[in-house]
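Re: the 157-residue chain
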Amino acid sequence: MSDIENCEFLDAAREAVQQLKKLSKEYPHLTTQPVRHALENWNEDMFRRGELIWEAYQKVLAEKSAVETRLTELIDSYHVDDAIDIINSEFGKDMNYYDLIDVVGKDRYIAALNREAVELQINCISPEQTADLWNGSGKPTVGGERWTATAVSVLMG
């Protein structure tokens, strides 16, 4: 729901409450005691609370969107661990590998691991050593229980 739709909804709800109050006063025999009680206790403060909740929700959505956008940018340029560290630092988060995969998707995660493995290989780090590094850091695998030299080699193509 957009901000405009939310405002329209709250305006419609205010109007509905006013109409129900008017009708219940004019035709008290048509309303039940719980309805009369609710209408008597419903006030503008309840709408303000609803608006505050809506604003807080919008802030959460905006931050989530900002984190997702930034993390997607980072994962395309940085190692997985660096992307997580930067996000955690910039946004005061406590993201882990699984959170990252949820946000950027498995394909981007695999692409980032591929770049990292190739870079490690260029720096004379074998696939076996890479597997040990990734297992030690807790990086989720792409299908197996633990990283192996074979899995790293397959990842690199």
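The chain has a mean pLDDT of 90.
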